Fold these 2 entries.
Entry 1:
Amino acid sequence: MENTGTSLFAKLIAERLGLRERQVEGTLTLLDDGATIPFIARYRKERTGALDEVQIAAIAEQNDRLKELAKRKETITKTITEQEKMTPELEARIAACWDATELEDLYLPYKPKRRTRAQAAREQGLEPLALMLIRGEQNPERAAQRFISDAVATIEDALRGAQDIIAEMVSEDERSRQTVRGTFRRTAYITSKVVKAKADTDEAQKFSDYFDWSEPLKRCSSHRLLAMRRGEAEGILRVSITVDDDECIEKLQRQWNTRPQSSSAREGRGCAMLVAEAVADGYKRLLCPSIENEFAASSKECADEEAIRVFAENLRQLLLGAPLGQKRVMGIDPGFRTGCKVVCLDAQGNLLHHEAIFPHPPVRKPAEAADALASMIRRYKIEAIAIGNGTASRETKGFVEMVVKELSAAASPAHKEEPGVGLYVVSEDGASVYSASKVARDEFPDEDVTVRGAVSIGRRLMDPLAELVKIDPKSIGVGQYQHDVDQTKLKRSLDQTVESCVNSVGVNLNTASVHLLTYVSGLGPTLAKNIVDYRRENGAFTSRAQLKKVPRLGPAAFEQCAGFLRIADAKNPLDNSAVHPERYALVEQIAKDQGCKVIDLIQQKDIRARVDIKRYVSADVGLPTLTDIMQELEKPGRDPREALEEFEFDSRVTSIDDLVPGMELPGIVTNITNFGAFVDIGVHQDGLVHISQLADKYVSHPTDVVHLHQHVRVRVTEVDRCRSRISLSMRTA
């Protein structure tokens, strides 16, 4: 992009996002140079004025939109020019226009279209008659008489053709479109009706709330709009967006019925009446459907953006879930008929052993299952057990607790003081998708899907981020209507979210999988594979500098990725921190000025306290970067995620039939939407805490009160067993 283009785009984006033009210019330059969003946000704060990832992503998105609009303007200009209809005024308006809707309004009269009634009338030479009617110059019948020809048999045919031309002129007129668009924007209603033939079907019942629904479009929440559109797509509902047609027609007729120029008032009224009829026809047949489609598309786009935003935030919270860390873990995929698949993993997540146990009906061999479980816990020195939250989860957890208690009771006095085996219930969402994926087949080519699924459950406990990045985010179960929204936008948003999470936590260069490395800034599938291949052939990395020896990992990729890769126990302690290698010399200079080594600077708080970072401000290193460096030296390689907590469901309830309004129960937040939060209370059916029930105070958005996997106390307010719906409250009674 040329400098003039960059400058213009920077100005437009700055105005739209409320940022300084200089911030946007710096960000666009970095993006054009190939820098990633995480890298820019972390290591180029001086260039952007310390913009965060959300702001940088918004700049990138606006930049892409403006580039697309610029291409569209080129196409439109070329098309109109080829038609020999371009005027200096129109060309100037197109050049100055950076609003997509306004641009399409300008183009509409010149846009190639299917043969229309107005086009046929123009071919019959009736356009001058249409203009006469609009001006009200003479008796309409007398004027029409002059246009009788072989193609136009009667005066009525001539007037009808002229009205068709006027109707199309109205529908393509920029001012008319803005008038109707303004009415839609202020007063449009969205209405949903059930298709009568489908009303009594089972599949229609999930849309029963929208069988007869109407509300102002501007107040319609994203989840309601997407629900209605899904019902429409499935043939259950008919959805329309409407306004007061009479009001719109009256406004348009006032615009188009110009003061008659004829000396005869009667003749003027005749023209005015014909024009009024044409305006009404143009509105009903052409203009209103066009604007309705426009608002249907724009409201769907807004609903998509909100749904994607909620999905991305939920995904972020899930990926940044508390990790157990490198412990020896047992993963259990619970089940009744097929038994419980049990896997034992070492502290690095490698599979050591697997087998199936059958503690539940119909096979029911609890004694054998208990012996096998106890034997595996002892043999593989298991420190924690992860149990999937699907079918038979509660029953399996109770059984495992019994075995663990018996083991603890039988332990020798010397082992009594050792920490017990922790029990954790882990979300199974997406485990089956992973187990059948190419990633899982490559990891465990000789194991079946049940073993792979149990391994995934165990690894999720150790490090949710490292395991969940292997699964398509849409399969993790933290969004709503993910299949109804724009899939390209959804994928881009979720990929950005995964990339952001991976880089904010950092990645262990010597243990990370290819899939995890793929999301590291500046890498991707090819370089990630090359890193793992190099690691396999040459042994563990001992310094970040060795990355430069990885095939095809050049200086640009090294700059982008190095700061996000960690090497535990590296010779240079900065290699296990978020300090970028480009700033190692600066840190060494700070240490030298303090008369110590870098490791002393990290380990001794009093030395760090003496550092005056303002002394080290330079042309390319400002206070934001220096502040980040000092914070990282305080806790190098710190994990931003919370500590893991154990959780217990209420033993009184195991199914929806056990629930009684008024019960107070512990629960885990499993999903968050605009209208509330879903909470698992251990009955195999999540309950909904509506946004109005989240707190005693007003809540503008559920994420202001709760986050994914948060442990909460809820009260049962209603149980609808027919529709398997549970209503919960977090308000004080």
Entry 2:
Amino acid sequence: MRARFSGPGAVEGDEAKFSFWSSMADLGALVMRSGAPQLHLRIGVALVLVFVGKLSGVIAPVMLGDAINTLSPVQQGGVVIGTTFVGLAIAFALLRLIAACAPYARDAIFTRVSQSTMARAAVESFGHALSLSLDFHQTKQTGTLSRIIDRGARSTDFLIRSLIFSLGPTFIELVLAMVVMVVRLDWSFAMAAFATLVVYAVLTFRITDWRLSHRRDLNETENRAAGLSNDALMNYETLKAFGAEQRLVDSYGRAMSDYVDASAKANSSLNLLNGAQSVILNIGLGAMTVMAGMAVAGGTLQIGDITMAIFLLSGLYAPLGMLGFQYREIRQGLIDMEQMVALKAITPNIVDADAPTLLPPASGQGASIVFEGVSFRHDARSSGLLGVSFEARPGQTVALVGPSGAGKTTVVRLAMRLLDPQEGRVLIDGVDMREARQAELRRAVALVPQDVALFNETLFANIGFARPDATPEDVRAAADAAELGPFIDGLPNGMATRVGERGLKLSGGERQRVGIARALLANPRMLILDEATSALDGPTEAAIQETLRRVKAGRTTLVIAHRLSTIVDADQILVLRRGRIVERGTHAELLAKTGEYAALWRRQTRES
């Protein structure tokens, strides 16, 4: 069953529950749809190399022990080295070489699969996040989605390497080593090795769990310090305006002091873990060496068997040295991947119908838009739209006025199908928007918002975003129509000028003109203007208004306005209050009614 979004914390938090086997199933499914070339062949060869490498690592000490056992003492106090010793020594070296090189060959073959899996996870999560509804994105915590996508994608690569190519093969090596000990030495050696590793694992897991609180404190203090520095650097104008530089530096200093304390505790607990691990492993190694020596003295084992036992156990110790780190990171990796899976399980509220209805072909006129008894209430508001009905016929201009919170922006979002009505329906060219394909609908509508959002790209890229196939001439024509021509000509790099993050290198009026140019380039059948000239000066606004009058010809236009002087020529004006239409008509008709619109008009004209 797919989850629905239920709040900003729905996919965030280190306390997320996870199931190991379901996570492994999700990881396996991701690997199989990664799209890596020769996927099955790469997986098969990588697994074979894993087994061959571990088998070689276990057999190599056996070869060395047998080689030492072939040495024969002579009367002069030396030893005789025969061809058998040379052959076994060469076999030992070759097997060690295979055991050492197998992981490199495995990585070379499997890296394409692991990286493709990570990329597939990131692309799928990113695409799904973009498909989620407006309510989800409005209530998410800043940076939450990017962290979930990034951590979830990177966790797939770490889990593959840690579980499949590290801990899993170590378990195989442990089984093979115990079999060799039982066959070549004695069952007591296998039990001693097994007991050592069990004590080692239990101690590692217990101390690692205890260290999690220290690690969490370290992460929190690090995040706090990073947050302070980021906020200060992003809001440096406000900081300087109030002369708060030293205050911020002091706060940052306290945060870094807390980080130093937390880091010292984390490092001390890490040293305790490493010390305890070394004690356990060396006690086990010493015990096995003593047991082998006693067996040699008793005549049940040979000298070379001591070397074999030591090498077998030492081979197991090497990958276990990172067990504490891997245990903690695997737990976090499973949580990160589960958070990514939980994000992908959220069902968008706005989805295409199973059999979408095609919009009628463009007739050279604007689109018709009809609201029929539309009601909508946001979770965070006490009121919303209540039974709103109106019609904007092709080519008409309909203006929405009213106080903040009256529902004007909600009407615009419903008209773009960024929201679906909870009651009633919205029709475009006679088709219920819920039955139309979203991509087709968005091509017919263009929005110029009050606060234009720009990418950290060039002017050309930001204007051309509306039509990726537009020619440079088309983009320049749209810029000229939005009165951007003189501004662009005055720039050293012209259209190639980068606008900065969120367009901060441009003034508010320049950003609005870029937004208008982008909408004009889209050549929509319905144009939505949300206070599109609010940041412009008087002469520029007059020029833009004249441009908008030209481009509105033949298009249906929906306008949100606070300055009533910009909508006196609208075909229909809707006055909203608390989600209801309280007045409607032309400018002249509403003035004649001497109602809310007339009062607002008188107030604005007196102020001007």
